[in-house]
Q: What sequence folds into this?
């Protein structure tokens, strides 16, 4: 019976177990199989020993035995054959069962390996899903990368792991996340792309798994601390066809070697890391945009505050002066009277210029100033006009403003009003930022290649770092509450835009404490060359 | 106090200085002027005016710094009215915390300015009298 069942196509483990004598109520475990095996062998050894014992007894007392047992007739041969047959049957039974048990234990081991692999798979999936969750809920990139690294280490083993990203120069890898015993040493490390394991992976975009001596060979002569690595794997972080960095795991104590399966799993972690990096860079970009907008917004509201402050001062003076003259006119001395009227006039002009600046700025913003007219401009006349206008507007009333021209009548092509505005703002600035006693020099120059306006003062000057931003809108050299002069900070912004509209260039030479020189270049077109000079 | 009140006008805008000064003179005050914070502090220490009209935005040293410096001095006689274009609650609070006696924002009305000066001076005189009376009271009690 048992034999026939074994001959059936081997079915489930339970079938085989039942055939091997492990009943349906007993669990099929390796120890059960071993117990059954021992049983089997003990029984067979017992039987063999009993037969041997009987045989020995039989030999010892051969002569006293009845005839039938002395094998002297046919019957006794039959008995012998029976005994031999019995032993053979027993032997067959034992061999059959032994085979079945061996098969069973093989199956069990296989099953165990399978279920272990399955549970590995499960923990991989759950680790990856943790990582996925973290990517979606954590905005801090270094947190996400740390988590990815630590779950990869937890899952795949290894003594240390690192995530390296390609630096903006595109030539080096920099460690951004590291788990392991050499934190300080590793975090400072930079690796050239193409060198070492990580460098090679970053360059070739192919995952790499190497063991033992291969590693030493790979790292040899590159000055890398070898740290006795026994098994290492490295996979590239790729997003949109672009390599962002690498993810490395290594084993230094030789407890285990990574397998191809481990490498594959590490690849999954790398995919997640690449996504996280992508998300973070998008988020970063978004944040930068917001910060820029906020800064602009801040500048604008500062601007509004400055505008209201700047408008209030002349208004206070105008209203106050008018009221005073109105009420106290008869009591005032004539020169006092005159000075109050002049105050009203001067502050009125000041208001007007502020309003004009705001208007010009909004024109520039809507692109209106981009098209400069082209007419022949007499620079010397223009300079004299600007200075006279400024004096009329009571700006720098008692200051010395010198005009130098070279040659006698320099000309340029451009928009008269625009160039007037440029020069006027520059001269006004020069007056604002320099002392009462110092002089301001305006030079108008024409050469073969260009026409030039220069405005030099002996004032406070501009420091190196401030030079970068003086042409920005709303900026002033000193925006603190101890600032020296009023104004919106629009003057130079306007100048810069008007110069741009003339395809010109503006340059500043300045030394803090010694003064500044603003130089505006108006280049001549091919067709203009020479003609202007001869005209002059 | 029969003598004329002495007022320091500290403002970097010469127009405003001239305007306020003229009007105060019409009202019978003696005036002093300063065009920046440092100068103002010097004049306050040297001349001990009764009252100072202090602008906040001034070169070299701003008005709030002047106020901070004054708060450190023990027997401050000079009263401070901040006169500024800074209208934010923030800077007003800052001024009050530093111990100004009044806060006036530009553009101001000259009549209001003069009224405020008078009020501050009267209050200061009342306080002085109160202090004197309290001091006499103290002396009596202790004797």
A:
């Amino acid at each position: 019976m048992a034999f026939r069942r074994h001959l059936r196509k081997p079915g489930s483990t339970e079938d085989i177990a039942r055939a091997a004598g492990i009943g349906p109520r007993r669990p099929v475990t390796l120890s059960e199989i071993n117990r059954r095996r021992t049983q089997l062998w003990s029984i067979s050894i017992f039987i063999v020993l009993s037969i041997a014992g009987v045989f020995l007894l039989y030999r010892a007392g051969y002569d006293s035995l009845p005839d039938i047992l002395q094998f002297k007739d046919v019957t006794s041969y039959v008995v012998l054959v029976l005994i031999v047959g019995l032993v053979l049957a027993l032997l067959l039974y034992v061999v059959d069962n032994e085979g079945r048990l061996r098969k069973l234990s093989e199956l069990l081991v296989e099953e165990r390996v399978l279920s272990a692999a399955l549970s590995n798979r499960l923990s991989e999936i759950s680790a990856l899903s943790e990582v996925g969750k973290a990517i979606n809920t954590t905005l801090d990139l270094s947190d996400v990368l740390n988590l990815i690294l630590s779950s990869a280490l937890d899952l795949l083993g290894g003594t240390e792991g690192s995530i390296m990203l390609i630096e903006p120069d595109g030539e080096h890898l920099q460690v951004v996340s590291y788990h392991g015993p050499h934190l300080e040493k590793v975090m400072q490390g930079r690796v050239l792309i193409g060198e070492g394991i990580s460098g090679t992976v970053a360059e070739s975009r192919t995952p790499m798994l190497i063991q033992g001596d291969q590693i030493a060979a790979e790292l040899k002569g590159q000055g890398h601390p070898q740290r006795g690595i026994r098994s290492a794997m490295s996979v590239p972080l790729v997003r949109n066809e672009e390599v962002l960095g690498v993810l490395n795991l290594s084993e230094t104590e030789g407890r285990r070697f990574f397998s191809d399966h481990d490498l594959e799993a590490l690849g999954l972690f790398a995919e997640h890391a690449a996504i996280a990096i992508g998300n973070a860079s998008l988020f970063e970009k978004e944040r930068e945009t917001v910060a820029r907008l906020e800064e602009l917004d801040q500048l604008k509201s500062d601007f509004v505050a400055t505008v209201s402050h700047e408008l209030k001062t002349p208004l206070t003076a105008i209203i106050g002066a008018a009221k005073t003259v109105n009420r106290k006119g008869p009591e005032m001395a004539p020169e006092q009277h005159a000075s109050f009227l002049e105050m009203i006039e001067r502050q009125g002009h000041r208001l007007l210029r502020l309003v004009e600046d705001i208007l010009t700025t909004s024109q520039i913003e809507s692109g209106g100033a981009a098209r400069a007219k082209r007419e022949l401009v007499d620079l010397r006349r223009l300079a004299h006009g600007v200075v006279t206008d400024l004096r009329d507007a009571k700006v720098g009333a008692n200051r010395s403003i010198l005009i130098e021209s070279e040659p006698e009548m320099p000309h340029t092509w451009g928009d008269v009003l625009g160039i007037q505005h440029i020069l006027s703002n520059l001269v006004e600035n020069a007056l604002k930022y320099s002392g009462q006693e110092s002089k301001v020099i305006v030079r108008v120059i024409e050469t073969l290649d260009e026409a030039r306006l220069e405005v030099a003062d002996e004032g406070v000057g501009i420091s190196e770092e401030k030079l970068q931003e003086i042409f920005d809108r709303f900026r002033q050299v000193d925006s603190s509450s101890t600032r020296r002069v009023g104004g919106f900070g629009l003057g130079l912004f306007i100048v810069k835009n008007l110069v741009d509209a003339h395809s010109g260039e503006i340059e500043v030479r300045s030394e803090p404490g010694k003064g500044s020189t603003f130089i505006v270049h108006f280049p001549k077109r091919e067709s203009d060359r020479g003609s202007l000079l001869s005209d002059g | 106090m029969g003598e004329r009140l002495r007022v320091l006008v500290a403002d970097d805008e010469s127009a405003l200085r001239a305007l306020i000064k003229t009007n105060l003179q019409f009202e019978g005050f003696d005036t002093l002027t300063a065009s920046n914070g440092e100068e103002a502090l010097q004049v306050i220490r040297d001349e001990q005016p009764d009252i100072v009209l202090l602008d906040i935005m001034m070169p070299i040293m701003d008005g709030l710094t002047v106020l901070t410096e004054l708060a450190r001095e023990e027997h401050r006689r000079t009263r401070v009215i901040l006169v500024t274009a800074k209208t934010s609650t923030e800077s007003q609070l800052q001024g009050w915390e530093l111990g100004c006696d009044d806060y006036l924002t530009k553009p101001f009305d000259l009549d209001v300015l003069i009224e405020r000066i008078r009020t501050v001076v009267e209050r200061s005189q009342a306080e002085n009298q109160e202090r004197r009376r309290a001091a006499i009271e103290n002396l009596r009690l202790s004797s």
